[in-house]
């Protein structure tokens, strides 16, 4: 079983995230980055599948030089090898271009049975790269898995929807996106951290993938951020301490605002 | 006037409110044509007509829904090619976004998700989105192909406008490649009788502070006719279903009123409620970060504050 896990390097959600005023892209330089927390679930799930059977887990990231950190973390968790696609031309790429680069990289890795992704990145939070990637690779996708089993050539997931809980199957090769309900990602062990240092990481450029620079980056994006503005901070309203009348005061506030 | 395709969100013909919102938005951009997949069109027709759908393209084949999103993306791609619409609007739900993502690649068109406003702009469509856990507002346009916009619930007030809702049954068969994934079992959820979380005007949520007892939160919610939400801590503890989780990895809600009870206000929770119009919190800890956001806060024990408020609201209503 050859599994590729797509992981994204994102600005830390706990930090002040912002945009570059020059081109309206996400500021990735001045904010510390890390492996998107939601992609840890994808790494963990892939490791569990391989540990229960056999195979190999490759982590793939498309991102700037610093994105090597995301690969490192996944290798420390236990993934076997990494692929880092980096190219100056990629800066400012939208989901469409990112999915193109990921798709070409997966084709180059070759002979992949299962692609695992997170449910959404913690910066863009669009949650569309997995479906775009599956579309480009011509793969069936089962998304938002809260449970995954792979048996023979079938992947089966459980998806908790609003109206129903569904069981969905797909024939391999397939793409699966996982939610944060699926498992509890492991912390890298000391042994894992030491072992990661010797694991191979391939560095690929766009040329290595046969992708033309004109197909990616800000100028190739199919959408354009025209402007951005910080939301005015909410001004704190009235805070009362409950002295036996907190509930009555709350009801009075809601009545005054016509919610009752 | 160019057509604007609206993918109808419905359960057996019961049309969800988001669809009337999308039809209202579609009228700003052109002439709304609804796309209806599945059974129950007779029940849906009246609503679609009332909110201005001139045409309804429909496909009845059960195969389309069994195989999840790919057939629907193929269907929309076929319509985009045939009708050259001014835009395609879908609900910004996980399923809607997945359909939109595949459609974008198939039709080489720009996609914007999570729009909270959509307006006609010079030669196209301009959207507003709320990003980075609601701390920024971004306006964006589509620069290639047919604008595909996934629109969040509550992004427009549904306005009625009579449409013909003339239906046309389409001849459509999904490709074999579209059948790679299949729903093999579906267990319906029990209805709570409360409004749907993302559509509700008022949401009352409980967190770890409930210590597992949501009854006070539910009673208070019911006195206001509200939906009930939960923090991830409450969901992870098994106190409330995951489908009720509010936040980054749960539902993003933007109601008129959001009441957080026993919730600290972590960034991931804020990401799902920060754009609510009015925010209220009840929390024992006066330093809980949730208080930074509130229009009104009570520092106190939810087990005494909520029942008192519930009684006062019920009394006011009688
Ligand atoms: C990748 C990732 C995704 C996440 N996604 C989400 C998400 O979608 N949604 C989400 O909510 N969280 C999410 N989280 C978790 C988030 O970081 C917090 O851990 C979570 O929101 C905390 O829930 P809480 O506020 O209920 O619990 P706590 O932080 O423990 O807060 C409980 C609060 O209750 C108060 N309290 C206790 N007893 C009472 C009482 N009797 N009366 C009144 N107040 C009382 C306490 O003072 C405290 O402020 C995510 C985390 C990660 C890492
Ligand atoms: N630049 C990237 N490199 C690798 N994987 C990515 C990248 N961007 C997105 N992904 C994958 O796609 C998922 C959804 O991302 P998004 O559509 O951006 O919300 C993530 O959880 C990752 O698994």
From TrEMBL, chain A:
Keyword field = Electron transport, Transport
Q: What region holds the Electron transfer flavoprotein alpha/beta-subunit N-terminal domain?
A: 23-213
- Which GO molecular function entries does the Swiss-Prot or TrEMBL record give? electron transfer activity
Keyword Iron-sulfur applies: no
User: What cofactor is needed?
Assistant: FAD
Query: Which SUPFAM superfamilies does its entry note?
Result: Adenine nucleotide alpha hydrolases-like
**Family, as annotated:** Belongs to the ETF beta-subunit/FixA family.
Assembly: Heterodimer of an alpha and a beta subunit.
Q: What is this protein called?
A: Electron transfer flavoprotein subunit beta
Question: Which species is this record about?
Answer: Terrabacter aerolatus
TrEMBL record, chain B:
Q: Where does FAD bind?
A: 208, 231-232, 245-249, 262-269, 283
Name the UniProt key words of this record, in alphabetical order: Electron transport, FAD, Flavoprotein, Transport
Cofactor(s) listed: FAD
All residue ranges annotated as the Electron transfer flavoprotein alpha/beta-subunit N-terminal domain in the record: 4-188
Gene Ontology terms: biological process:
fatty acid beta-oxidation using acyl-CoA dehydrogenase
What SUPFAM superfamilies does this protein's entry cite? Adenine nucleotide alpha hydrolases-like, DHS-like NAD/FAD-binding domain
Q: Which Gene3D superfamilies match?
A: HUPs, TPP-binding domain
Q: How is the cofactor bound?
A: Binds 1 FAD per dimer.
Read off the Pfam families from this record: ETF, ETF_alpha
For this UniProt entry, the molecular function terms from Gene Ontology, in alphabetical order, are: electron transfer activity; flavin adenine dinucleotide binding
**Assembly and interaction partners:** Heterodimer of an alpha and a beta subunit.
The family line of this record is: Belongs to the ETF alpha-subunit/FixB family.
Instruction: Report the protein's function.
Output: The electron transfer flavoprotein serves as a specific electron acceptor for other dehydrogenases. It transfers the electrons to the main respiratory chain via ETF-ubiquinone oxidoreductase (ETF dehydrogenase).
The protein here is known as Electron transfer flavoprotein subunit alpha
């Amino acid at each position: 079983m050859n599994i590729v896990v797509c992981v994204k390097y994102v600005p830390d959600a706990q930090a002040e995230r912002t945009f570059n005023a020059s081109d309206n892209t996400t500021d990735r330089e001045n904010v510390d980055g890390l492996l998107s927390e939601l992609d840890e679930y994808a790494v963990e799930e892939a490791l569990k599948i391989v540990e229960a059977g056999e195979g190999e887990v490759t982590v793939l990231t498309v991102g700037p030089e610093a994105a090597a950190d995301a690969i490192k973390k996944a290798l420390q968790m236990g993934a076997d090898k990494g692929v880092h696609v980096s190219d100056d031309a990629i800066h400012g790429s939208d989901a469409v271009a990112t999915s193109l680069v990921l798709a070409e990289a997966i084709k180059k890795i070759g002979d992949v049975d299962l692609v695992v992704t997170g449910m959404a990145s913690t910066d863009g939070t669009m949650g569309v790269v997995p479906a775009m990637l599956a579309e480009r690779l011509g793969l069936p996708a089962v998304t938002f898995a809260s449970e995954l089993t792979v048996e023979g050539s079938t992947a089966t997931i459980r998806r908790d929807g609003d109206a129903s809980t569904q069981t969905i199957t797909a024939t391999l090769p397939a793409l699966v996106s996982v939610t944060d309900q699926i498992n509890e990602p492991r912390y890298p062990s000391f042994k894992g951290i030491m072992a990661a240092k010797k694991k191979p990481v391939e560095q690929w450029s766009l040329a290595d993938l046969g992708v033309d620079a004109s197909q990616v980056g800000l100028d190739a994006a199919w959408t354009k951020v025209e402007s951005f503005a910080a939301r005015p901070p909410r001004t704190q309203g009235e805070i009362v301490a409950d002295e036996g009348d907190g509930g009555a005061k709350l009801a009075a506030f809601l009545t005054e605002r016509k919610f009752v | 006037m160019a057509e604007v395709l609206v993918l109808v969100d419905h359960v057996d013909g019961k049309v969800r409110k988001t669809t009337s919102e999308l039809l209202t938005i579609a009228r700003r951009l052109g002439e709304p044509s609804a796309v209806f997949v599945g059974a129950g069109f007779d029940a849906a027709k009246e609503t679609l007509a009332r909110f201005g759908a001139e045409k309804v393209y429909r496909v009845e084949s059960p195969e389309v829904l069994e195989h999840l999103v790919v057939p629907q993306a193929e269907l929309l791609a076929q319509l985009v090619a045939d009708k050259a619409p001014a835009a395609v609007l879908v609900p910004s739900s996980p399923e809607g976004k997945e359909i939109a993502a595949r459609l974008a690649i198939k039709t080489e068109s720009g996609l914007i998700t999570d729009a909270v406003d959509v307006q006609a702009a010079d030669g196209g469509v301009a959207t507003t989105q709320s990003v980075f856990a609601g701390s920024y507002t971004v306006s964006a346009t589509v620069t290639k192909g047919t604008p595909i916009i996934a629109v969040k619930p509550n992004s427009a007030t549904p306005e009625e406008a009579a449409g013909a809702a003339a239906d046309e049954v389409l001849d459509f068969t999904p490709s074999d490649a579209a059948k790679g994934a299949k729903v093999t079992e579906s267990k319906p959820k029990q209805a709570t009788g409360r409004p749907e979380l993302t559509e509700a005007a008022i949401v009352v949520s409980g967190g770890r502070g409930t210590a597992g007892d949501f009854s006070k939160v539910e009673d208070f919610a019911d006195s206001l006719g509200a939906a009930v939400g939960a923090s991830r801590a409450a969901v992870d503890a098994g106190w409330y279903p995951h489908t009720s989780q509010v936040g980054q990895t749960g539902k993003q809600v933007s109601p008129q009123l959001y009441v957080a009870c026993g919730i600290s206000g972590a960034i991931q929770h804020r990401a799902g409620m920060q754009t609510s119009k009015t925010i209220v919190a009840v929390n024992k800890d006066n330093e809980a970060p949730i208080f930074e956001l509130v229009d009104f806060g009570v520092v106190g024990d939810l087990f005494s504050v909520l029942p008192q408020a519930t009684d006062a609201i019920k009394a006011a209503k009688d």
